[in-house]
């Protein structure tokens, strides 16, 4: 694991010394946007036009942030509009790699870089910006025409997918409707800080205090959500929204990796009747189950984080998502 410094790859683990043992996530740096024809401004360099076949999405099937983007490809029926490939689950001294490995073939998405045949994800970043400094993260939304990264921020990629290509697909499902935007934003904020990123704060903490300070709010939020779901099918009521899918990709990994590997182990999702039923409901949404790859998930976390699991032993259980 490492990062780019002025276009050069440096192998370095997260530095938590400056933050008293706390894991602090860095901001994503490519923040452009794809617009439908009616809103696209060709003289604005951060604007990209909605065009079929023009964009490629690089994901990791292990990563919860990349998983959000993949879920939106399915929900918004974008498979014919945006091509997709994935990285190998191991993220070691070279960061994310495109190496072929028959042990990790996914029946839906190929490992590799079909556009440039690069070996490493960092090469995409230096192609987009030769002197780039920063982390090399997935998801990466790539523009084949301008040969650059449109966005590497999952929360924005899903908002782009939510509407930019509606004219082409005819799929007008809206997971961030104006009337619910405030409530969605509020829930997202709590869930991001304490759960989506909270599991990482627990797992990557290097002091007891930092770990405990992340663990308490994490389970407060799970208890709050369990209560909320006693009267609701989805977080906002009867309809699915973006808030559900942002939560989904964390919950689906929880019992398999966050409970053990990241020490979020006061309770499993399986121990929460409402949350568990809700998770299954989301999982059973058409085309969603195919986006979940338990083998990539377990292998990535247990094998890549050598500071947490130096033996790199990948536990055999759980073998199923819903035992
Ligand atoms: N804010 C980003 C975070 C993405 C992210 O951190 N992805 C992880 C994989 S789970 C990654 O690529 N990490 C590599 C690194 O930090 O060097 C997003 O939501 O898209």
Write the layout of secondary structure elements.
Elements lengths: L1 E4 L2 E4 L21 E3 L11 E3 L5 E5 L4 H12 L6 E5 L4 E2 L2 E2 L25 H7 L5 E2 L4 E4 L4 E4 L2 H10 L2 H4 L11 H16 L1 H7 L3 H21 L13 H17 L14 H11 L10 H11 L19
Parallel strand pairs: 3-4, 5-6
Antiparallel strand pairs: 1-2, 1-9, 5-10, 7-8, 10-11
Helix pairs in contact: 1-3, 1-8, 5-7, 5-8, 6-7
Bound molecules: glutathione.
Would you give an account of this structure?
The protein has a 4-stranded mixed sheet with strand order 6-5-10-11, with helices on both faces. A 3-stranded antiparallel sheet has the order 2-1-9, with no helix packed on it. A two-stranded parallel sheet has the order 3-4. It has 2 domains: 2-169, Glutaredoxin; 178-285, Glutathione S-transferase Yfyf (Class Pi), Chain A, domain 2, CATH 1.20.1050. α1 packs across α8 and α5 runs antiparallel to α7. The protein is built from 10 helices and 11 strands. Helix content is 36%, strand content 12%. The protein is globular, with a radius of gyration of 19 Å. The protein has 323 residues and is an alpha+beta fold. Glutathione binds at residues 1, 28, 60, 63, 65, 135-139, 152-155. The site of glutathione has 14 residues, from α3.
Structural class: alpha+beta
Gyration radius, rounded: 19 Å
The biggest beta sheet reads: 4 strands, mixed
The percent range for helix content is 25-40%
Q: Got a strand count?
A: 11
Q: End-to-end distance, in Å?
A: 33 Å
Query: Which ligands does the model contain, each kind named once?
Result: glutathione
> What is the total domain count?
2
**Unreliable stretches covering 5 or more consecutive residues:** none
Assign the CATH class of the largest domain: Alpha Beta
Question: What is the succession of H and E elements?
Answer: EEEEEHEEEHEEEHHHHHHHH
Q: Give me the number of helical elements.
A: 10
Question: What name does the CATH topology of the largest domain carry?
Answer: Glutaredoxin
Within CATH, the superfamily of the largest domain carries the name Glutaredoxin
Overall morphology: globular
Strand order of the largest sheet: 6-5-10-11
Keywords: Transferase
Domain GST C-terminal: 177-304
Protein name: Putative glutathione S-transferase
GO molecular function, one term: glutathione transferase activity
